[in-house]
Amino acid sequence: MTRTPMPETTAASPHRDSTPWGSILRNVLLVLALLAMTWLALNVRLPSLETLQARIADLGPWGPLFFIALYALVAVTPIPVTIMAVAAGMIFGLPIGTILSMAGVVLGCLGGYGIARGLGRETVMRLLGSHAEVVEQRLEGGGFYAVCTLRLMPGIPYWPVNYGSGALGITARDYLVATALSALPGQVSLIAIGAFIADPSLVNGLAVVISWIVVITLTVLAYRRWRAARSSQGDPEDTSHG
Predict the structure, then answer these.
(1) Is the dihedral of CA 57, 62, 63, 69 positive or negative?
(2) How many degrees, rounded to 5, is the angle at CA 131 between CA 176 and CA 86?
(3) Fewer Cβ neighbours under 10 Å: the N or C end of the chain?
(4) Which range among 38-47, 104-113, 225-234 shows the weakest confidence by mean pLDDT?
């Protein structure tokens, strides 16, 4: 008895579905992120210090939590965090203002770091625009001291460091510790200015002077440690300066 041959099934062509969905998704996310950042930078304006102070006072015991949440949101975006830190000093004073500001800025920085891990390196580097070269040069192959250096370096906002660290593979532990330690002196220096504006006492004046001395000193030390680490890895850019 002869068997009827079964019809052969055609093997699925490896090129049957060659649509690069991953690349398309990353490009869509890039466009959305760029649009969001551009809109925030051009349209969102933080309230004045007086308005912010009045709103927080109206919230009563919820005021500090509102401040932390608002600070964290600002730290995720390109909006400068300076006004938030100064406001903390004016509204809450130096000790409480420092605690609330650090809580907000660390949460916001972690948020940016997490978003960058999801977007990926290529997308984030495009998103950083003019900051991409500096951030990549400092953070590539870096770690704790690289993050500290950029956090303390004048003229570099928080958000490129947040996104660059996530995209360039800085470990979460190094990033978190470096952010908490290196953001503290800069935050205190700004909070002290706000506290001095609200209460121009000798203590607040000394806090301003001392905190800025600490910021400058730590910036130099962190940069030297970063240079030494890069030199030990054979970076020609750093060894040529020795």
Answers:
(1) negative
(2) 60
(3) N
(4) 38-47
Query: By mean pLDDT, which of 74-83, 207-216, 217-226 is the weakest?
Result: 217-226
What DSSP designation does 153 have? S
Cα 180–186–191 angle (5° rounding)? 105
According to the model, what pLDDT value does residue 12 have?
A: 46
**Cα separations in angstroms, 21 against 18, 34, 115:** 9, 20, 20
pTM: 0.70
Residue in this structure with the two tokens 């890895």, named with its chain if needed: 233
Q: Are 195 and 204 in contact (CB under 8 A)?
A: yes
Is 78:37 a contact under the CB 8 Å cutoff? yes
156 contact partners, CB below 8 Å, separation of at least 6 = 131, 134, 135, 150
227, two tokens: 């240079």
DSSP state at residue 75 = H
Band of pLDDT at residue 239, cut at 50, 70 and 90: very low
Spatial distance between the Cα atoms of 120 and 34, rounded to a whole number of angstroms: 14
